[in-house]
Amino acid sequence: MMIKKPTILVTNDDGVTAPGIKALVEAVKPFGNVVVVAPDKPQSGQGHALTLEHPVRLKAVNIFEGVEAYKCTGTPVDCVKLAKAVVLENRTADLCVSGINHGSNASVNILYSGTMSAAMEASLEGIPSIGFSLLDFAMDADFNPCVPFVQKLVKEILENGMGKANLFNVNFPKLPLAEIKGMKICRQSKGNWKEDYLIQQDPMGRNVYWLKGEFINFDTGEDTDIWALENGYVSIVPSQHDLTDYQSMEGLQHFETGKLNEIC
Amino acid sequence: MMIKKPTILVTNDDGVTAPGIKALVEAVKPFGNVVVVAPDKPQSGQGHALTLEHPVRLKAVNIFEGVEAYKCTGTPVDCVKLAKAVVLENRTADLCVSGINHGSNASVNILYSGTMSAAMEASLEGIPSIGFSLLDFAMDADFNPCVPFVQKLVKEILENGMGKANLFNVNFPKLPLAEIKGMKICRQSKGNWKEDYLIQQDPMGRNVYWLKGEFINFDTGEDTDIWALENGYVSIVPSQHDLTDYQSMEGLQHFETGKLNEIC
Hints:
Two copies of one chain form a homodimer. Chain A is an alpha/beta fold and 264 residues long.
């Protein structure tokens, strides 16, 4: 059993005033000392972006009752780096939770997601981390059905750890609690986005391009996050940051060379 | 043998006017029809960021002799998405090359790297892709020693494919050609960044935070990209975008639940 109250770092990518982070802070408050460091504006789709060309700012905010909280002008990953190096300083986060994101981070969306990149950034230093997302973009999305699952995971991880994993990508279907069948450990579904830019003209008559598109799932497995979500389950994908393609390595030895002393 | 001349998409994250992309365009020009779509300004550390809050612009530029080229106001990933959906339209890229980046993208830097995210974005649609980086931040870095290796890889891949892989993270040591021992297939080294923010005051006396830090390699394996680079080799890490932590999956079944009908 823990003697010291655990420190829980909370962040997101929708910004410190988004309803999703409020729901998450309230859900995890009973389990430790909560510290929030989150972007001061929406940072969806920022992936693992860092702010390098200019400095960022950090400002204490009084948004969550009785909770130490800061807004930051940087990306979600900047928030986590600043939290560790400046805000927490000599305190260690026992857990990092990110979200609850407004919209899906299942399948390949993990790559684009600021929510998941923030959680991954914390996990890089060995902090057990969870990114939470609800498949509902609406600002008035109902996060209540997520709460018991969030609390069950957080309690279990603070008490007994995450096994050999240290990063979970958790997605909630848009369903009332009574219709959610449970939580499932899944793999990341294979899929991608098919872009279809909206091309408009600015007042000077010049083309501008708005990114839009459609997610295509081309994975028929019943062990994927997409399958779980489509079938009424909360998906948990244990995730990591080693991008090495071990499966293809064996067939690549012919790319190795010795010295190349002249232009081929 | 190819009958049709292959289409080679070139991008980067240092911007369309960076010396590294010029070196790359010249290196790959003999092997196909080159199309460049690259950011109009430096986009280092942008990871897999997308531009969602506003539209992006695309403008034809005459920078590379005899080469169709565009600059884009978005991120490296935006460049690849626009290239596929708008610039190439009905043409298919046979290969995407990104870089040559000014600075290392070995180990965990792949996560933060716009260069690698652009290459990964192309690989998501099955386009064989390579990100190239030279361990030298200087604007007058010497890219000449990279050229024979770039050409050997591009020629081999256009003729015979990439085996089961479709994304390579290639890093060059900062060495003269005669001292480079060859190319090695490697895995991504385990490491991370230790942040040490530079805190300054703005003219109003308010703190601003500049990200800086030191990369810590904690992997002693001799099969990693960091080992190869430190020992005079060009590193090739076959990379992919499935972040599922398969190794830890088995020990996580206790996180699965059935219905949770009340707040726990």
